[in-house]
């Protein structure tokens, strides 16, 4: 087992100024499901809870094995996960990615009487079906881009021919973040439509298509914890989706993030809670599909106010790697309160200052990239920096790359500028061949 500096810093609450309790509390074991940087951050934060004893991650990565115990069960092996939870008396299971949620992992755990944090399959439609989410928002009067929904190619093409302005073409179903094509003109929109509906570039995810009005403005990610009735926001965050500095090049899963964005006021958060979050949570409950878990509202701050771009039914990646280090509360207690319908706003408070994360990616990402490149320098970064692993694995005692996004290096500061300079100092100490990262995160 590797013992290194980064392990100590990730294990230590002291590095971020928290001292966990202990004493006579009966501790629970926790299972985090997934294998990316988001899951590393979840396992790290859950491990700080005085309520939590052992933390397991299935299947995890080289980084999660430094803060938890990896279990070789795939995230879609529901029977295997349920058996593990039953055999090990797990008191809280937490789902990272959207695919198992959309496939009904929460319903299966609930049927077996097991405690799990996340929305049911029906509630997860808010992410898994953009058509469902859009129709719902239209019915509830929630501010979002105007859109029309089609299952027939000719009808969609005729709609585009009306030239209603710049459009965004979206496959309704899950497409690993790739099913959205932002178009500059009608010709581009027509070819996007063909790609999704005729060439079936995203398979069944494109059986239903949205043609949306193209909005403009800065984006914002607001992650909200909810027990189905009460909803409490985490700190707002902003991610950088394009691969190159200055927001150039193709979209990625996210090249970095920061929280909170200086332009986002408490009044704006209140407005988003009032116009978007509370109506959604109330509407889902009224329709008999209460939403429990974390709801990620992707928003655009347009000239006429905040509008919804999309919902995700899970924590964001890499937003989690900045919002959890800023959370000054007991994540395990908060998640249990969500499951048990007793969430209250006092449970959720934040550290002052700001947090930044910079993603270190493989050469070639978001296209094809090599795997197995040795990573060095992780043991030389300072204790107040958190190196969350996204795509890594252990190979012959060495941590090597094992994905497009390899690491998310997070750090806090009394202000954004301080956090940025701390993180980039650390980033310069980490190496692998062809390392790719943006120099302008949070700047
Ligand atoms: P999504 O996967 O829905 O988050 O979309 C990916 C990205 O496409 C978003 O983060 C936005 O930058 C962009 N996008 C999606 N919908 C719109 C829209 N209606 N107007 C402008 N940009 C959009
Ligand atoms: N950071 C974007 C996402 O998690 O979908």
CATH superfamily of the largest domain: ATP-grasp fold, B domain
Largest sheet, in brief, is: 5 strands, parallel
**Number of helices, counting only DSSP H or I runs of 4 residues or more:** 14
| Tally of separate domains | 3
CATH-derived topology of the largest domain = D-amino Acid Aminotransferase, Chain A, domain 1
- Broad CATH class of the largest domain: Alpha Beta
CATH architecture assignment name of the largest domain: 2-Layer Sandwich
Ligands and ions found: adenosine monophosphate, glycine
**Cα shape:** globular
As a whole number of angstroms, the C-alpha radius of gyration is 21 Å
Please give the oligomerization state of what you see: single chain
Residue fraction in strands: 25-35%
Work out the number of β strands: 22
Percent helix, as a range, is 25-40%
Uncertain segments: 1-22
SS-based class: alpha+beta
Name some characteristics of this structure.
22 strands; disordered N terminus; 29% helix; 3 domains; 443 residues; 26% strand; globular; binds adenosine monophosphate; binds glycine; five-stranded antiparallel β-sheet; Rossmann fold; alpha+beta; five-stranded parallel β-sheet; Dna Ligase, domain 1; D-amino Acid Aminotransferase, Chain A, domain 1
